[in-house]
Amino acid sequence: MSGRAALRAGLGLLAGGQVVLGLWILLLPELFWKWPWVSHLPPYNEHLLQDFGGASLALAVVLCAAVATMERRLVLTALVAYLVSAVAHLLFHARHLEPLSAGSAAGFLALLGAAVLLPAVLVWLAADGTAFREPGSAGTGRRPG
User: Fold this and answer.
1) Whether 36 contacts 101, CB under 8 Å
2) Nearby residues of 27 by Cβ (< 8 Å), 6 or more positions away
3) Each residue of 26-64: pLDDT tens digit?
4) Which residue pairs, CB below 8 angstroms and at least 24 apart, start in 103-109?
5) CA distances (Å), 63 to each of 5, 51, 102, 133, 144, in order?
6) Residues in contact with 139: Cβ distance below 8 Å, sequence separation at least 6, in sequence order
7) Most buried of 15, 37, 50, 94 (most Cβ within 10 A)?
8) Closest CA to 57 of 27, 93, 88, 91
């Protein structure tokens, strides 16, 4: 798999996750709240959940635009935006594990860690620009001819 294809696939995975998350929260906030890793942090607040769902969909729009265009600045901006959100999410939950069993806490932190690791790897892949060069462009980043 080329760097470009890997980058596009990773962006697509992140975008798809945000679409699913955002729609789940907007359409079924009570069901989202019942998820054990969420409901241990009461109280339920539909307003904040709806805002989070909308923000997740907004991030999905930017990630989808990056997938569609594969323009370097947009890809890096989308990935850094996702990474900021993922790091903040991980740090919050790492400080609020008390109600969870050790196994559940470990699984949750592993999931949140992967949500940080994937975009970090994609930023690294995108940073040098190789994935954006067209074949035959001699490293200029422009299409031949």
Assistant:
1) no
2) none
3) 999 999 999 887 887 778 899 999 999 999 999 999 999
4) 104/36, 104/37, 108/37
5) 15, 18, 33, 20, 27
6) 133
7) 15
8) 27
What is the rounded distance in angstroms from the CA atom of residue 17 to the CA atom of residue 141?
30
To the nearest 10°, report the CA torsion of 57, 32, 116, 94. Answer: 140
Counting beta carbons within 10 angstroms of the beta carbon of residue 128, is it exposed (0 to 12), middle (13 to 18) or buried (19 or more)?
Answer: exposed
Among 12, 21, 5, smallest CA distance to 85 is for 21
Sequence letter at residue 66 = A
Count of positions (residues) in the chain: 145
Q: Which of 33, 21, 44 is nearest to 112 (CA)?
A: 21
Q: Is the pTM of this model over 0.70?
A: yes
Joined together, the tokens standing for residue 117 give 């690791």
Of the listed ranges 76-80, 98-102, 139-143, the one predicted with least confidence: 139-143
Measured CA to CA, the distance from residue 68 to residue 71 in angstroms comes to: 9
Residue found by looking up tokens 């679409």 in the block = 19
Alpha-carbon distance of 139 to 129, in angstroms, equals: 9
